[in-house]
Amino acid sequence: MYLVLISSLYQAAQTAEGDDMMTSMQSAGFGDKLDRKAYYGFIKILCGIEWVEHAVKPSRYSGHAPGVKSYSLFIEKLARHNLGDHSNALFRESVARGVHVAQGEYNIDKRYVKVKKESKVKKRLTLPKKMRLKSKRLYKHRMSFVKKPNRRMLRA
After folding, report:
1. Distance between CA atoms of 1 and 19, rounded to whole angstroms?
2. 95-126: per-residue pLDDT in tens?
3. Sign of the C-alpha dihedral, residues 124, 129, 133, 138?
């Protein structure tokens, strides 16, 4: 029952409540139900809703070291999120732990690539344009003190 509640909380992107539910499950004596399979299911849900950074936190495992599937999922998702440094660090960590993860090339998702916009060089305003802007600004300021007419709904 706890596992279903935790997974539904994670699917609703309520990660703090899901973490609290997990700690209450362990304190209630059902910590043995949190095995590798359950943790992998939670990790998969969190990666599916784009909460990769939260899923990678080491406190999530509570004694269960991630396996090949978890590491490959983390590395792939971090690479897609344009977080190559984190994915390389995780790869090095998996090699240091003795977990053999296959290397691969991952495409970066277009949503996470920051496109640098070209800044336009502002030209100096000519005197007529400057005067036009000034008069428009003064007109708006003067009109702010005038009572506006009530807008009636038009019958169509």
Report:
1. 15
2. 898 888 888 888 888 888 888 888 888 889 99
3. positive
